[in-house]
Amino acid sequence: MNMVEKGPPNHRSQPSTPHACHGLDEIEPPEPPALQRRLVGNTWRRLRRWVRANMFAPSWLPARLRHPALGYLAAVMVEVIAVALTLLLRMVMPAFSLLEALVILGVVVVALNWGGGPSLLAALVGMALLSYAVFPPQLSWSFASVEEAVGVGLGLVVGLLISLVAGHVARRSQARQEAETQARALRETQTQMDTFLAIASHELKTPLTYIKLSLQSLRRRLEKLVRPGSGMPEELSQKVTPVLQEFAHTDQQVALVERLVNDLLDVSRIRAGVLDLHYEFTDLGMIIRQAVDEQRQAAPTRTLLLQLPEAQPVPVYADTGRLGQVVTNYLTNALKYSPVEQPVHVGLDVAGHQARIWVRDRGPGLPPEDQARIWECFHQVQGIKAQSGNGVGLGLGLHICRIIIEHHQGQVGVESAPGQGSTFWFTLPLAP
Questions:
Q1: pTM of the entire structure?
Q2: Under 8 Å CB-to-CB from 375, ≥6 apart: which residues?
Q3: Cβ distance 357 to 425 under 8 Å?
Q4: CA dihedral in degrees (101, 105, 107, 112; nearest 10)?
Q5: Coil, strand or helix: which one is 316?
Q6: Every domain of the chain and the residues it spans
Q7: How far apart are CA 332 and CA 161, in angstroms?
Q8: Residue 130: pLDDT band by 50, 70, 90 thresholds?
């Protein structure tokens, strides 16, 4: 008896065919191309960005109603009123042919007050209402009359164009108004700051003068007590001597505060247009020599090299004190930012009917981008440290120098390079 084993079915007999066992309901639709999705997404994002950028609220509305989204409600209301007035005009004057005029005017009104986004809605709503309410019902969407259909289309296109143009103009107008408002607020803030500077400078001037005079009087009394033959015991005299040495440092600090207060006072006067200048005929070389002598006494360890024309006066018609202030500021800056062992050169050159005063140092120099800005008010160059003396400053000295020289019909300038020092100069016209 033959026995037959039943093995696994032979799958090689019929090759499988793709999707042969799937029904039609299981076939997935093909996905849209990535480029098409990207184009749709970019268009939608641009439209939303444009709507947000072209939507604002008019300033004449109360504060609680200044919401840009209310412009869309206003757009619908304005177009409803425009279409109602169009119907009324057509009933009163049957020959009235400018049916789209009020609708377009409403688009302009919405665009100028709420922007391009609401005006775009106004154009669509206005033309839709116009095609239903004004034209005969059978012509609403059948377009049996080519002339009226073209009129609706042209009105819609004109409305859209006016919406875009008027929205752009209104946005620029609003930006200009905002800029004017910010400029007005900035001017008011500047005026308040100038008033504060003037008041603070005047109020600080009186107590500072009192402190300075009191310290000088106290110092003279102590010097008189420790003078030989004054009768003060030697032990007490030795205790007073260090106190007198501290007065020198105190005088320097008081002089620094006095200079800062004077700078603030000068800036307040410059901004108010009341900087007093007392002109007289004077010798420019004498002014420079006096300023150099004062700095030699204040900094006896420093070297100041002076170069003046030999036996030749340099006459100018100027304010002696103010020119001395400019030269002193140039010198103190050169001494402050140059190494102690390096000399500072000061010179006066005459060419034609003009004098040129210059101060040269061996300091760190100035970057090119800061050489024009150092003459601005409150500007300080970053990254440059004082080599000697006190580095405290408000960035006012060079600004005051520029204003003083410009009042004398002169010019200021600087020649500098990083690591090669600086040469600050100013020019003045010679007196006839």
A1: 0.55
A2: 398, 399, 401, 402, 412
A3: yes
A4: 160
A5: strand
A6: 63-190, 195-272, 280-429
A7: 66
A8: confident
CATH superfamily for 280-429 is Histidine kinase-like ATPase, C-terminal domain (3.30.565.10)
Select from 370, 431, 376, 372 the least CA-distant residue to 401.
Answer: 376
Residue 208 in 3-state DSSP? helix
Quote the CA–CA distance of 138 and 155 in Å, as a whole number.
Answer: 20
Radius of gyration of the chain (CA): 43
Strand partners, 427: 356, 411
* CATH architecture, domain 195-272: Orthogonal Bundle (1.10)
Residues above pLDDT 90, as percent of the chain: 20
Q: How far apart are CA 361 and CA 346, in angstroms?
A: 9
Distance between CA atoms of residues 329 and 290, nearest Å: 13
Which tops the pLDDT comparison, 7 or 335? 335
Q: What type of residue is 107? A: V
End-to-end Cα separation, the chain, in angstroms: 149
- Phi, psi values for residue 356, rounded to 5°: -125, 120
Count Cβ atoms within 10 A of the Cβ of residue 23 and give its class: 0-12 exposed, 13-18 middle, 19 or more buried.
Answer: exposed
24 in Cβ contact with 86 (< 8 Å): no
- Residues 170-194: what's their mean pLDDT? 78
Q: How confident is the model over 351-385, as pLDDT tens digits?
A: 889 999 999 999 888 888 888 888 988 777 777 77
Token pair listed for 115: 């922007």
Q: Is 352 left (phi over 0), alpha (psi -120 to 50) or beta?
A: left
The string over 103-124, giving b where at least 16 C-beta atoms fall within 10 Å of a residue's C-beta and e elsewhere, is bbbbbbbbbbbbbbbbbbbbbb
Q: Distance of CA 151 to CAs 54, 81, 129, 185, 388, Å? A: 27, 20, 14, 50, 84
Is residue 102 within 8 A of residue 82, CB to CB? The reply is yes
For residue 17, what pLDDT band results from cuts at 50, 70 and 90? very low
Residue at 405: amino acid letter: I
Q: What is the pLDDT of residues 84-100, one digit of tens each?
A: 888 888 788 776 667 67
Kindly state the helix (H) or strand (E) to which residue 253 belongs, with its residue range: helix 234-272
